[in-house]
Amino acid sequence: MTLKEYLAARIEVVDQALQRWVPAESVEPETIHRAMRYSLFAGGKRIRPILCMAASDVVHPDAPGIEDAAATLEMIHTYSLIHDDLPALDNDDLRRGMATNHKVFGEAMAILAGDSLLTLAFQVLSELSEIGAEQRSRLVLELASASGTVGGMIGGQVHDIEGERMTPTAELLEKIHRAKTGALLRASVRMGGIYAGASAAEMQALTAYGEHAGLAFQIVDDILDMEESSAALGKTAGKDLAQQKITFPAVYGLAESKRMAEEERQKAHAALERFGNHGTRLREIADLIVDRKS
């Protein structure tokens, strides 16, 4: 199976899981469920749940029910995008090539749609039936920590907001992106390992991979914001520069940022050595993260 075929198959599996867990648009109150589904099924790449399933596969191929755990990562990611686009934060009109949630449903409903996806993610983890209580507890802790304020996604967003129009520094850049983007990507890989019952050594290797792949993802995101069009990205291009955000190109320049992304790719590959050929998909995903154009 080619990587393209693999990704398409995984996206289908994740979407089926999301369809099962997210209430239908006909379920009362209908408006909130329409708003949740509008953003959730707007055509995302599903990188985080795919990373989760690929990480699980290197430890326990085709672990039953992994797609449900993986789907919670897409719920959290989509909630963060809905809130990030709000006027009080990035004030954006375009996401995944469509009007942002608040432009369609209004700010109040967009806030509630994000809240609903956040809470649903933890409901799903608590109801996983294929693993034991200890693993469920570890998954909840992993996702909550990666989404939170201390070294997590929300903490990174706070640093990002407060860093606007400040002098770009490597220290502040590190604070923002290891938390805002990197934490959830690392958690995606770690949750796959936890679900599959990875050993301490396997978890260490997966964590290192997740950290390097996550950093590469953000570096490339910053580069694409400068080099690609809004049509290609599916979101408003050039926002980082317009809002004077602290990005890798702002601190290091474009050429050095590209070199750093390549370095993180190589480190991600190296972290998978203990898995041999079983780590092929994760290596391919690291390549995809660095080579993508959107």
Explained architecture:
The chain has 294 residues and is an all-alpha fold. The chain is built from 16 helices and two strands. The protein has a single domain (3-291), classed as Farnesyl Diphosphate Synthase (Orthogonal Bundle), CATH 1.10.600. 71% of the residues lie in helices and 1% in strands. It has a two-stranded antiparallel ribbon. The longest helix is centred in the last third of the chain and has 28 residues, at 200-227. The chain is globular. The mean pLDDT is 93.
Please report which band the strand proportion falls in: under 5%, 5-15%, 15-25%, 25-35%, 35-45% or over 45%.
Answer: under 5%
Mean of residue pLDDT? 93
H and E order: HHHHEEHHHHHHHHHHHH
Largest sheet: 2 strands, antiparallel
Query: What is the highest CATH level, the class?
Result: Mainly Alpha
Tally the helices: 16
DSSP strand count: 2
Radius of gyration, Cα only, in angstroms? 18 Å
Helix content: over 70%
CATH H-level superfamily: Farnesyl Diphosphate Synthase
**Spatial gap, N to C terminus:** 23 Å
Using the alpha-carbon principal axes, give the shape: globular
- Low-pLDDT residue intervals, each spanning 5 or more residues: none
CATH T-level topology: Farnesyl Diphosphate Synthase
Structural category: mainly alpha
